[in-house]
Amino acid sequence: MDQKQWQKMTAEERLETRFQTWLNPKNANFESPEAQAAYQARANRLIDAIQLKKKPDRIPVYPLLTFLPAHLAGITYKDAMYDYGKAMEAWKKYVYEYEPDVYVGPFLAISGKLLDIIQYKMYRWPGRGVSERAPYQCVEGEYMKAEEYDDLINDPSDFFLRVYLPRIIGGFAGFQKLRPFSEIIGITSLAQNLIYFGRPEVQETLETLMVAGKEALAWLMEILKFEQEVKNRGYVNGAGGMSGAPFDVLGDTLRGTHAIMMDMYRRPDKILQAVERLVPIMIRWGVRDANSTGNPLVTIPLHKGADSFMSDAQFQKFYWPTLKKVILGLIEEGCVPMPFAEGSYNLRLKYLAELPPGRTAWFFDQTDMVKAKEVIGDRICMIGNIPSSLMISAEPRKVEEYCQHLIEKVGKGGGFIMATGTALDEAKPENLRAMIEYTKKHGKYR
Fold first, then answer.
1. Can you give the pLDDT at residue 225?
2. Which of 24, 110, 316, 335 could bond 330 through an S-S bridge, CB–CB 3.0 to 4.6 Å?
3. Is 82 inside any structural domain?
4. Helix (H, G, I), strand (E, B) or coil at 111
């Protein structure tokens, strides 16, 4: 479909087009009619829940995870990041053995080789700063200085390329020596700008990125082969794309937690300008991913909007307006935003009620699911929220009891997907099986 046709379509027509593309992937080569039917049944089950339909066959089950397949397969998290073959086998074993309605693929086990090549500084990862069986650990810092707000606002791409990325990625260091690309205007400015590419440190950066690009491509090809195989066997990937809340981009990765908290008092106007500037970038990111994967589901991890981080007045001023714009922008492009409300969102539910019905699905971590059902259950598909503590340390009976509670209290009337409250690195195999099998057997909408 060309761009002119797309622009003439309504948001609802775009959504239906994306759903049909997802249900009937052109690149699929299903191994049997039964596999195709299973794939479409799983995808339709998810679509029905998102759109709040009252009579899907049952509640979908969606275990959230990061390194859990590696744990179940008995390999280290470092193995999963550095040995692509082991990672793919671990994830296939997980999918084929446990058969979730929706799976999370191995893309979260990012290539450790790639991170080594580029000298990534913002995270520690298995075998690099933490143990081989420990998950990622963010290294917060003030990677954007207070006086650089205007640089971000005026030209985000230039700020990221020449300032921010060289600070968090050693392999980008040479780009600090470049001049802004926006100054290459006309023939007279060519030489004075391009001369910087002759500097040894810039050439070293380019050479590093070429090596990194080859490694990233090798990793991606393994991911794509995995995705193709499991799709052909009838399994559905829950991740079509990613995006972010503008305040989180600013507070998590640029200013850092301490600095952004101070900025809310010292330079509130700069925060508001910056988050507005990030809105179209976040929309474009999610849409580009959805276009690439053919999957309309766009996950938006939410961090600093939780009840315990900021007051309701601060949420209303700094966080919600631009997050809402990103969500509505994705909806307008026919995507399904899937914000992941980490922590508790009990005080934020009233804002979620402002969103159009049947167009988003929200992952909930520690939010009161019964209260959420009362406030937003007629507008938003709810996903969650089995505690990781149950999955890791309880007996299967306790997991089943929690599932039953969610089925009875939250599944009533549709619009619910069974999931863990957080992405798991560990879980008892019997508890994972209890979650999935109990939901499949007893997860009938009431």
1. 97
2. 335
3. yes
4. coil
CA distance 390 to 392: 5
What CATH number does the domain containing 407 carry?
3.20.20.210
Q: Is residue 333 part of a domain?
A: yes
Q: Are the CB atoms for 237 and 112 separated by under 8 Å?
A: no
Total domain count for the chain? 1
Q: Rounded to an integer, what distance in angstroms lies between the CA atom of residue 428 and that of residue 95?
A: 16
Triad 134, 66, 167: Cα angle to 5°? 70
In this predicted structure, the answer to whether residue 446 has a pLDDT above a threshold of 80 is no
Q: What is the pTM of this model?
A: 0.96
Asked whether 297 and 336 are in contact (CB, 8 A), the reply is yes
According to DSSP, residue 162 is labeled: I
**Beta strands per DSSP E along 127-232:** 129-130, 137-138
Is residue 192 very low, low, confident or very high in pLDDT (cuts 50, 70, 90)? confident
In a domain, 169, yes or no: no
Indicate the SS3 state at residue 96. Answer: helix
HSE-up of residue 355 (Cα within 13 Å, Cβ side):
35
Q: Over 424-443, what HEC string results?
A: ECCCCHHHHHHHHHHHHHHC
Tens of pLDDT along 351-362? 999 999 999 999
Q: Under 8 Å CB-to-CB from 6, ≥6 apart: which residues?
A: 14
Residue pair 82/44 in contact (Cβ under 8 Å)? The answer is no
DSSP 90: H
Amino acid sitting at position 322: T
Q: What is the pLDDT of residue 42?
A: 96
Percentage above 90 pLDDT, the chain: 93
pLDDT at 185: 87
Residues 6+ apart with CB under 8 A from 53: 414
Do the bridges between strand 297-302 and strand 241-242 make them parallel or antiparallel, or are there none, so unpaired?
parallel
State yes or no: pLDDT of 369 exceeds 90.
Answer: yes
Q: What is the mean pLDDT of residues 279-302?
A: 97
Find the domain containing 17 and state its range: 3-110+214-442
| Residues facing 240 on adjacent strands | none
Question: Is 320 a member of any domain?
Answer: yes
State the Cα–Cα distance between residues 289 and 360, nearest whole angstrom: 17
Q: Which helix (H) or strand (E) holds 49?
A: helix 33-50
55 pLDDT higher than 80: no
| Residues forming a β-bridge with 348 | none
d(CA 378, CA 204): 56
Contact predicate 284/335, CB 8 Å: no
Residue 182 has pLDDT above 80, yes or no: yes
